[in-house]
Amino acid sequence: MPFAVRQTDYQKNPMLNICDSELLGKTIVEGELNIHISESYYGERFVEKDEAENLLKTSAIINMVGEETISLSIELGVGSENGVKKISGVPFLIVFKM
């Protein structure tokens, strides 16, 4: 399954926005909370698992959405289950590497 990614720099640090590709363009709603997983934020291009692994390992700031994406980050030791939040069952995780 491909991952949707967008790479930028934030204060001279490599930042990665990455999500499960099937979530791209969807809106997640829980109560009054409404989050759109937009193509402009996450969907610059699509990558396969091996490139996603490399990007997760080398980025300093990572915004992640989706079961596959977050499972991969935890498997790599990049993310922690303790930081995962779910909105309508969809997991979100932000990682800042020091």
Explain how this protein is built.
There is one protein chain. Helix content is about 25%, strand content about 45%. The strands form 2 sheets. Strands 5-1-2-6-8-7 form a 6-stranded mixed β-sheet. The protein has a two-stranded antiparallel sheet with strand order 3-4. The chain has helices at about 40, 50-60, 65-75, and strands at about 5-10, 15-20, 25-30, 35, 45, 60-65, 85, 90-95. The protein has a single domain (about 5-95), classed as uncharacterized conserved protein from methanopyrus kandleri fold like (2-Layer Sandwich). By secondary structure, the protein is of the alpha+beta class. The chain is globular. The N and C termini lie far apart (about 30 Å).
Kindly list the characteristics that best describe this protein:
globular; 98 residues; two-stranded antiparallel sheet; uncharacterized conserved protein from methanopyrus kandleri fold like; 8 strands
